């Protein structure tokens, strides 16, 4: 269960009420030093990023992910973190990088989340970092190696200013965010335990920008998959729709999918059919991404299979949508059968008062830095992420990482100028939280 966050929310509201619209540049000497450190280490941060990007770490590249973790170990150990590589061979994945820093007793417990893996495996043609002035292209440069570099820059700034000493922080960099191992109970066990420990979770996935403005993320939708199998009575097509032959498996599949489209829509819900096959035979491969089918125009099909996903903003919405889908599937056409099975991937990160309070704290920092006020991003604009696994336990704020364009594509490009403002925001937010007693 989520721990109550009313004290945190009340504190943020009190700050807002007492200060009104905060004046710019209201930074403490330590905060000013953090800003200066981030600026001074700009090229160093880019150099770290280049090294990370040039090491392939596709999700299935165990050695590559371990190499990235080996690069990061001395960086975190130099800041006083104890580093552990958590084995995940049980679920056929590279493992997780966890770094722990023990600070002041009773201080805010913070969980920083990112990942080392990318969608680009060793056989992908896109393999190297290329800088073009204030931008850089490369596999994972935004998602998520840019976010990891920004996280590290923020922690180095805190160390230089002396604010890291009191901070209670766990850094969790998963090695399989792009395609986590199954079952999730094992693959995300350590992350969930860290979330249960934490008061605050900060996700260093990409910063969203809309119309040129930085946006805050206090909610992300879930990612749930489903597989639907329909059956019919195979026979001569001239008997289709008769009492004895029924409607056949493909018509039953079409009926169900059509009703999904007509009856499921509601706010914050999307649902998709990604793969479909049917005929007198139909099957999927082990990963469920390729289909085979046989059939003839004059044979009533005996089987049809479809796979898809749906995305929701809360566990309650997930359960409600599942029940509606199951009811539609159960309402069979004549002479047919149907079964639907679900697999919940990423849970939702629902918008909460605690998340909103964290976001208000971030906007206070924006005012102190002389940066524009951030708006809230529509959760429909974000995909799922690891922070969702811990959002039910801790107040959560996502989008603390890099920004750019073309993520997951062969022209993935990062705007390097985001490093100073994102790292400085994060360093000041974590320092202020570390100074509080929870």
TrEMBL record:
The keyword Metal-binding applies. The keyword Isomerase does not apply. SUPFAM superfamilies: Bacterial exopeptidase dimerisation domain (SSF55031), Zn-dependent exopeptidases (SSF53187). Keywords: Hydrolase, Metal-binding, Signal. Residues 218-335 form the Peptidase M20 dimerisation domain. GO terms for molecular function: hydrolase activity; metal ion binding. Residues 1-25 form the signal peptide. Pfam families: M20_dimer, Peptidase_M20. This is M20/M25/M40 family metallo-hydrolase.
